[in-house]
């Protein structure tokens, strides 16, 4: 996160998105109905889902920002993925209903060009959504929030939808194709189904403890290897917990150092990774002796066999004690 004001934007984006999308969805539904534009009504569904997304961002922010507690030792970050999953399911259901209605209208065969007021409404929606796409994308990038990233994708889809509506209305009026508005509406519903499926899959992966990006693991390896006392980075495990990345790694240290020194090296690794890896929520570094610095198994086996054969008669087939020691007892004092 580059700027302190990114946190302020994150805290406000849910409320701003809620107000803007409430106005847009109500306006597009009203104008779509009175103008006879099915495409604009479908476009209103894009804004309606953004209303739901904004509400869930507000609620999700309040819950996910709560500190760790006894019942939730790994935090509340996954609530964002859970809410994203709910959004996708609502979107898929509502889009399925809209797809049924648009298909029915197309099959009826009676079409009329919508009123031009729908065109100006679509253009206004396009401008507003392009602005909020850039705004929400910036917040999502800096904060690494899956909920805000979902909202950003939705605003991008909204802008695409509004531009398609505008083109459909122009075609209906000036190209003699009154059915084009309904075709655009059909295309919008198909796109909404794709978008809903994409959000569902991303949320599902988040709930299943998906590993962090490979680029993050590479940076972790480079940073940990550069720390004095680290001989090797043996393993790295990452997982996404909401907007945070949780890291667990094992480092190899020299066997000659004390346990307290090894612990200090591991703590240094944790500090460096927490300071230099973005969006880190927790770092847990374990240590052990490097593999090449401990005796090989064959060497240990030979030493054990040597100890076991001490005091045995080498000529005895059963390995019994020699006659010098067999049955011998210490002299009484």
From TrEMBL:
<dbReference type="InterPro" id="IPR058533">
    <property type="entry name" value="Cation_efflux_TM"/>
</dbReference>
<feature type="domain" description="Cation efflux protein transmembrane">
    <location>
        <begin position="15"/>
        <end position="208"/>
    </location>
</feature>
<keyword id="KW-0812">Transmembrane</keyword>
<dbReference type="GO" id="GO:0016020">
    <property type="term" value="C:membrane"/>
</dbReference>
<dbReference type="Pfam" id="PF01545">
    <property type="entry name" value="Cation_efflux"/>
</dbReference>
<feature type="transmembrane region" description="Helical">
    <location>
        <begin position="40"/>
        <end position="61"/>
    </location>
</feature>
<dbReference type="InterPro" id="IPR027469">
    <property type="entry name" value="Cation_efflux_TMD_sf"/>
</dbReference>
<feature type="region of interest" description="Disordered">
    <location>
        <begin position="308"/>
        <end position="333"/>
    </location>
</feature>
<dbReference type="InterPro" id="IPR027470">
    <property type="entry name" value="Cation_efflux_CTD"/>
</dbReference>
<dbReference type="InterPro" id="IPR053502">
    <property type="entry name" value="Magnetosome_CDF-Related"/>
</dbReference>
<keyword id="KW-0472">Membrane</keyword>
<dbReference type="Pfam" id="PF16916">
    <property type="entry name" value="ZT_dimer"/>
</dbReference>
<dbReference type="InterPro" id="IPR050291">
    <property type="entry name" value="CDF_Transporter"/>
</dbReference>
<feature type="transmembrane region" description="Helical">
    <location>
        <begin position="81"/>
        <end position="100"/>
    </location>
</feature>
<feature type="transmembrane region" description="Helical">
    <location>
        <begin position="112"/>
        <end position="135"/>
    </location>
</feature>
<feature type="transmembrane region" description="Helical">
    <location>
        <begin position="12"/>
        <end position="34"/>
    </location>
</feature>
<keyword id="KW-0813">Transport</keyword>
<dbReference type="InterPro" id="IPR036837">
    <property type="entry name" value="Cation_efflux_CTD_sf"/>
</dbReference>
<protein>
    <submittedName>
        <fullName>Cation diffusion facilitator family transporter</fullName>
    </submittedName>
</protein>
<keyword id="KW-1133">Transmembrane helix</keyword>
<feature type="domain" description="Cation efflux protein cytoplasmic">
    <location>
        <begin position="214"/>
        <end position="286"/>
    </location>
</feature>
<comment type="similarity">
    <text>Belongs to the cation diffusion facilitator (CDF) transporter (TC 2.A.4) family.</text>
</comment>
<dbReference type="InterPro" id="IPR002524">
    <property type="entry name" value="Cation_efflux"/>
</dbReference>
<dbReference type="GO" id="GO:0008324">
    <property type="term" value="F:monoatomic cation transmembrane transporter activity"/>
</dbReference>
């Amino acid at each position: 996160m580059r700027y302190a004001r990114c946190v302020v934007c994150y805290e406000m984006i849910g409320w701003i998105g809620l107000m803007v999308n409430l106005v847009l969805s109500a306006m597009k539904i009203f104008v779509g109905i009175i103008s006879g534009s099915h495409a604009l009504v479908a476009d209103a569904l894009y804004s309606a889902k953004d209303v739901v997304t904004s509400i869930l961002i507000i609620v999700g922010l309040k819950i996910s920002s709560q500190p760790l507690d006894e019942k939730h030792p790994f935090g509340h970050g996954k609530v964002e993925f859970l809410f994203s999953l709910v959004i996708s399911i609502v979107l898929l259901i509502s889009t399925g209903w809209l797809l049924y209605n648009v298909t029915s209208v197309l099959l009826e065969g009676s079409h009329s060009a919508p009123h031009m007021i729908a065109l100006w409404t679509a253009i206004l929606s396009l401008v507003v959504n392009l602005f909020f796409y850039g705004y929400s994308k910036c917040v999502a990038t800096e904060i690494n929030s899956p909920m805000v990233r979902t909202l950003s994708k939705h605003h991008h889809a909204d802008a695409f939808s509004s531009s398609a509506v505008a083109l459909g209305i122009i075609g209906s009026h000036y190209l003699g194709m009154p059915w084009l508005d309904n075709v655009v509406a059909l295309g919008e519903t198909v796109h909404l189904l794709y978008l809903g499926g994409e959000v569902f899959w991303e949320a599902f992966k988040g709930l299943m403890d998906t590993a962090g990006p490979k680029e993050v693991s590479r940076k972790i390896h480079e940073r940990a290897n550069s720390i004095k006392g680290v001989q090797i980075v043996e393993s790295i495990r990452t997982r996404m917990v909401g907007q945070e990345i949780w890291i667990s790694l094992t480092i190899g240290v020299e066997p000659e150092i004390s346990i307290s020194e090894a612990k200090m090296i591991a703590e240094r690794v944790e500090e460096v990774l927490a300071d230099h890896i973005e969006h880190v929520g927790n770092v847990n570094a374990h240590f052990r002796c490097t593999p090449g610095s401990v005796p090989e198994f064959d060497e240990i086996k030979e030493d054990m066999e040597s100890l076991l054969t001490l005091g045995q008669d080498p000529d005895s087939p059963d390995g019994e004690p020699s006659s010098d020691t067999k049955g011998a007892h210490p002299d009484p004092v």
